[in-house]
Amino acid sequence: TMAAKQEVTVRLVVQQIESAEILVDNADQWAKVGRGVILYVAFLKGATVDTINKAVSGVLNAVICFSSEKETNVSLLDLKGDVLVVPQASLAGKLKQHTVQYHTLIGKEQGLQLYDTLVQTVKASAPGQVACGTYGNRQGLRIVTPGPFTHLFEF
Parallel, antiparallel, or unpaired: how do β-strands 82-87 and 130-132 relate? Predict the structure, then answer.
């Protein structure tokens, strides 16, 4: 018998950055981070705290950050990099003909709880500074990147 297909419940896009800032109040207050990654996150139905722990550990330990000092890729932990966490519900979208549908997106209240848990988990584990966007808001982003070095991870 075939194993049951594991449902994706947390979708992350991780982008290496030199620096980034996010508009946290929709006016003029920017939260800034230095060299590290932006972590765009969407929670799908079925996401749990256990999934968040696996996702954060996976991202922090993945060898995906280029280190100019070592001239090779290292983990975010080894880079001692910063993290900007950005809620990105649109990552839950599925293209159906010409329309994007969000049937798998988790409910807003549960999503907010999971987002807060993810942010606290990253803050407790990440080696550098951690900043985060506001769940449920559209927010301006300014990004300086060493190149289009972006990964999609699903948990």
Answer: parallel
pLDDT of residue 1: 54
Angle at 154 between CA 153 and CA 155, to 5 degrees: 125
Give, for 18, the enclosing helix (H) or strand (E).
none
Q: What angle do CA 15, 17, 22 make, to 5 degrees?
A: 90
pLDDT of residue 27: 81
Q: Between the CA atoms of 76, 59, 126 and 41, what dihedral angle is there, to the nearest 10 degrees?
A: 130
For the chain, percent helix, then strand, then coil, each to nearest 5? 25, 40, 35
- Mean per-residue pLDDT pooled into runs of 10, the chain (155 residues): 73 96 88 96 96 97 92 94 96 95 95 97 97 91 91 96
Burial class of residue 96 (count of CB atoms within 10 Å of its CB; 0-12, 13-18, 19+): exposed
Q: Are strands 30-33 and 19-23 parallel, antiparallel or unpaired?
A: antiparallel
Contact 85, 133 (CB under 8 A): yes
